[in-house]
Specification:
This protein has a single domain (3-7, 11-170), classed as Rossmann fold (3-Layer(aba) Sandwich), CATH 3.40.50. Helices cover 42% and strands 15% of the residues. It contains nine helices and six strands. It has helices at residues 15-28, 43-50, 65-73, 88-97, 109-113, 116-128, 149-155, 169-172, 183-193; strands at 3-6, 33-37, 56-59, 78-82, 100-105, 133-138. Strands 3-2-4-1-5-6 form a six-stranded parallel β-sheet, with helices on both faces. It is globular and about 45 Å long. The structure holds adenosine-5'-diphosphate and magnesium ion (MG).
Length: 194
């Protein structure tokens, strides 16, 4: 896996957190990593401005995104594209440049239901790009609570990763620092390599 797009039409699902943690995991495994921050809110970029990170964060420009990603891919780098919510166009662009589209989702019935428009777009993209893999990542997960039945049903048949990210204060407090407690995201990263 060379290029990962973290995307969802929904905001607040953990895209930026996931991008920063996975970049840290890959960097600590010795890989050269670039995050291309395609969100005009630039939250990944702002995060990086506050921290000493073992990877670079490039501010993405929508009209140059393909060239920026190509440039970042040179020299065997891992590229992670963090994306904005509510942009079908950027979702399609970022997904079109990626080997894997990773879709974070919080596992409540309502949230899972709102995953459909994102998955529809990705299914359409896969019809053009058969080599694009899609994976759903459960974030903000509470292992003590059973998944709501509606959520289980909505997730059935979807490519959901076995590795899950729990709802933890540590993730909430991570903004602006070097991510630590990497175990859960390390498991995600391993599963994505397979
Ligand atoms: N696993 C988690 N547990 C607790 N809080 C989380 C978790 N993942 C993300 N958050 C928090 O949720 C909010 C939204 O996360 P963020 O990564 O910015 O989502 P997005 O980029 O999809 O908008 C942030 O305040 C973040 O700190
Ligand atoms: Mg974000």
């Amino acid at each position: 896996m060379k290029t990962l797009a973290v995307l969802s039409l929904k905001g607040g699902v953990g895209k930026t957190t996931t991008s920063l943690y996975l970049a840290t995991v890959a960097a600590q495994a010795g890989q050269a990593v670039t995050i291309v921050d395609a969100d005009s809110e630039h939250s990944a970029h702002r995060w990086a401005a506050h921290a000493q990170l073992p990877f670079e964060v490039v501010q993405g420009e929508p009209d140059r995104l393909a060239r920026q990603v190509k440039a970042a891919q040179a020299g065997d780098r891992i590229v992670i594209i963090d994306t904005p919510p509510n942009s079908r166009e950027l979702l399609l662009r970022a997904g079109g440049l990626a080997d894997i589209a990773l879709v974070p989702v919080a596992p409540t019935g309502l949230e899972v239901d709102r995953l459909r428009p994102t998955l529809e777009l990705l299914a359409d993209l896969q019809a053009q790009r058969e080599d694009l893999d899609v994976a759903v990542l459960l974030t903000r997960y509470n292992p003590r609570r059973r998944l709501a039945r509606e959520a289980e049903e909505a997730l059935e048949g979807l490519p959901v990763l076995k590795a899950r990210i729990r709802e933890l204060e540590a993730y909430k407090a991570a903004f602006g620092g070097l991510p630590n407690d990497l175990d859960e995201y390390t498991a995600v990263w391993k599963e994505l390599q397979e």
